[in-house]
Design goal:
Layout (H helix, E strand, L loop, with lengths): L19 H14 L8 E2 L1 H8 L3 H13 L4 E2 L5 E2 L5 H25 L2 H20 L2 H19 L4 H18 L4 H19 L3 H14 L1 H5 L7
Helix pairs in contact: 1-3, 1-7, 2-3, 4-6, 4-7, 4-8, 4-9, 5-6, 5-8, 6-7, 8-9
Length: about 230
């Protein structure tokens, strides 16, 4: 598996408005959802603060909030770490994802707009391009944008508050399942099927394609946590 990417630099992108600790929280949570951090990776506060160009206080506030959501855990040495999940926990995450995204894709098939379809198509094209280049980080970022685009197209109130914490746990695991070009291109093919179904407003076909996408990597994901500390 490729080495995990560094934490996003708070100075390298246009930061969202709001208190600094909120900006750091959003960046770290986005990094977790997009698989920028690996399961078991330790996140020392001083290193995060240096990489993000902030003081310790906003980083400490952000990671404590992520800990309260279960997206990070504290090691015996008091260092924050991306949790390693056992096979049963991984299986439950997949089950919860299917429960939520079943509703998402069926609602999206009914409620999607032409703008939604254009955005989803753009994200899948970005995924395919990243796969061709072997750029895992770019692929995972576009994959997250695709699934968030589906959620936006569904127009279900309060959905983001449920999906984001789920994806914070899923992101590091999804990264484990996308190490090669063939796997990434296969995911893009599933997304093509979803897009074709959404174009026809065919919720049954969209659900079938989504299920195939999610379940494709399920056996490997639930086989067990990777070795290491």
């Amino acid at each position: 598996m490729p080495e995990p990417d560094a934490a996003p630099d708070a100075r390298s992108e246009t930061a969202p408005q709001g208190p600094l600790h909120e900006q750091v929280f959003r960046r770290l949570s986005a990094g977790l959802m997009a698989g920028r951090f690996a399961a078991g990776q330790k996140l020392p506060l001083r290193a995060l603060a240096a990489e993000m160009g902030t003081s310790l206080m906003p980083v400490r506030d952000a990671v404590q909030r992520l800990e309260s959501l279960g997206a990070l855990v504290v090691t015996p040495g008091r260092t924050m770490m991306v949790p390693r999940l056992c096979p049963a926990e991984r299986a439950d995450l997949i089950r919860l994802r299917m429960l939520l995204e079943t509703e998402v894709v069926e609602a999206a098939a009914e409620r999607r707009s032409e703008a939604d379809l254009a955005d989803l198509s753009d994200q899948n094209a970005a995924m395919r391009g990243a796969a061709e280049r072997g750029d895992t980080a770019a692929f995972l970022a576009a994959n997250l944008r695709f699934h968030r685009g589906l959620a936006a197209a569904a127009r279900i109130h309060f959905l983001e508050a449920l999906l984001d914490p789920l994806w914070m746990r899923l992101g590091p695991l999804v990264r484990e399942q996308t190490p090669d070009r063939e796997n990434m291109l296969r995911t893009a093919e599933y997304h093509d099927e979803i897009l074709r179904a959404l174009l026809r407003r065919d919720g049954v076909a969209a659900l079938a394609a989504l299920s195939a996408d999610v379940m494709d990597g399920a056996p490997a994901m639930t086989a067990g946590a990777p070795p290491g500390g």
